[in-house]
Structure prediction request, 389 residues.
Amino acid sequence: MDIGIDKIGFYTPNVYVDMEKLAEVRGVDPAKYTIGIGQEKMSIAPLHHDSVSLAANAALSILDDEDREKIDFVLFGSESGVDHSKSGAVWVHNLAGIQQNARCVELKQACYGATAGIKMAMGHIALNPDSKVLVLGADIAKYGLNTGGEPTQGAGAVAMVLSQNPRILSLDNDSASMTKDISDFWRPLYSDYAFVDGKFSNEAYLGFLKEVFDNYKEKTGRNLSDFEAMCFHLPYTKMGKKAILALTEDLDESETKRLMDSYHDSIYYNKQVGNVYTGSLYLSLLSLLEQAPEFKAGSRIGLFSYGSGAVGEFFSGIVKPDYKKYLNKDAHESVLDDRRELSIEEYEATLEKALPKDGSDIAIDDEQVNLGKAYLSGIKENVRLYSVK
Ligand code: CAA
Prediction:
């Protein structure tokens, strides 16, 4: 059965910080952030946005009434979930107006969560061919002010509708995955900020990539020349360049150049948003599909998902005829272009602003913020209150 991505959209908050200005204030050469790390802008989430509202906005940007009727499974990948018990999927299900006879769950394994959702969605559709599944990857990446990870923060969400006979990307059923218990990046329950062993996390990412890609090649008989382009989990966009160099180190330069050409299209959105953890790989896929010249139908795209801690998976998909018709490049460019730049003082205040942790009520009222369609309006008696415009 042909199963894959039928629709894909994203949302990011409408405020950002400029990386060159952040570098100057931190006493760092701006080229370190823009070239060494590869980030130009970083989306920042105001108090009105959490992983649920970001995901709801991404979902609302792609769903129509037929989707709302046919979706019977909502899978919410996140590592910045808002409740230890209730899944973000239940809130999004309601905010997006999806029919009631559906299952909703949240999936956690660092940045791998949305990929786990895709794999579960494929199995569900294989058993229930008329179903549609909504897969979400939504996160706010926070390391804190003046930390090593500070230039690799971000906020946003990707929403995808998976179905049989998809119009954008068919997903191959063969893939290779790997799990190892390591401490490269994690976030203890008490902390708003992630902990990371930065250099080790880079090494672990590349080590996983090489091992799962070797395994994928062995299982499928395919090799690099079978791929028109590659998309990677992008904690920062330079990581994708490191990934291509790691995969092509024993090959001639033409192979590296071929993959590097599409790499620039695959990082266009991510370098303006920053790390969105679970959504990063899929934001890169969206960027590639919307920004690169149209691939021939049948072109194969490689996808590497990495969730610290760690789980990695290499899988692949094949672009469908006329897939560009079903994307929304203009709307996505507007989401990025219509954002407001924060001064460094505003960025610092916004990043450190937190919801009450002592059970007290709050009504969030920030007129400065363009909220998107769905937003968190407050907390009352420990219940989060979301609104949809
Ligand atoms: N001009 C151009 N380039 C410069 C420069 C300049 N003036 N100054 C430095 N650079 C380059 C460096 O040469 C280096 O390049 P390479 O990585 O290619 O060697 C790059 O800029 C970064 O410099 P440093 O290594 O000195 O930077 P750092 O010590 O500040 O750490 C970091 C960078 C490890 C990414 C850190 O920001 C961090 O810990 N980020 C969070 C963790 C992370 O994103 N890990 C990625 C893998 S884990 C994962 O993928 C899961 C996830 O989402 C978190």
Remarks:
- The two ends are 38 Å apart (CA to CA).
- The CA atoms of residues 184 and 200 lie 6 Å apart.
- The first strand starts at residue 3 and ends at 11.
